[in-house]
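Same chain as my last thread, 247 residues:
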Amino acid sequence: MGLLQRYIAKTILMSTLLVLFILLGLYTFMDFIGELDDLGKGQYQLSNIITYMALSMPKRIYELLPIAALLGSVLGLGNLASQSELVAMRAAGYSVQQINKAVMVVALCLMFVAVFVGEVIRPPAEQKAREIQSVAKTGTVGTRTDHGFWTRDGLHFNHISRILPDGKFADISIYEFDINNQLRIVTKAKEAQYDNDSWTLTDVVQSTLDEQGVQIRTVEHARWKSKLNPGMVNIVVVPPEFLPVWS
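reply #2:
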């Protein structure tokens, strides 16, 4: 790449970064105002909002980078044209193809940056942001794995294999520990449906561990009292569009 092509690329890149910075500032401010509505909900404090906003920054960069690249290219080339620099380059023998090459180099670089941010940085940052938000708002710890969704509710550890489109849980396992961290009860259910501040479990198999061994009880339906509700799950679960392509 020649000297003038590097100059064009640098001008476009700086314009893109300026536009990206301005857009990030605007969207971050609007997101911050939106999060203030939940300030004081549970243990959700200003420090939690700031941490959540910081971890959400890769998501915003990924979303805004294409717009910033388009506007930055227009502004960069427009600035060169307004100062007659493009005319001078053409007069010096630079072709339109050479100018386009400089623009394409910047576009390719920004594309690789977007892919890196979107597939490497954004997914873990978004999941951590949602975990922090969920813990602060509800006191329920949750995390997503390749084999389902885990939550902690006091001394109960809950594993949900699948979350159905209608908000029901499928293939649930509930592990209840005592204050000495000894496993006491394991409850497995085929399905769970939220109703009146509690869950209705279907096809339940409950195993109780005591000094006599394991006592197994099977019932068709059972009630499950938990802080967990469909709204909390939506907070913690990372939507598919925020997951890397290899997930």
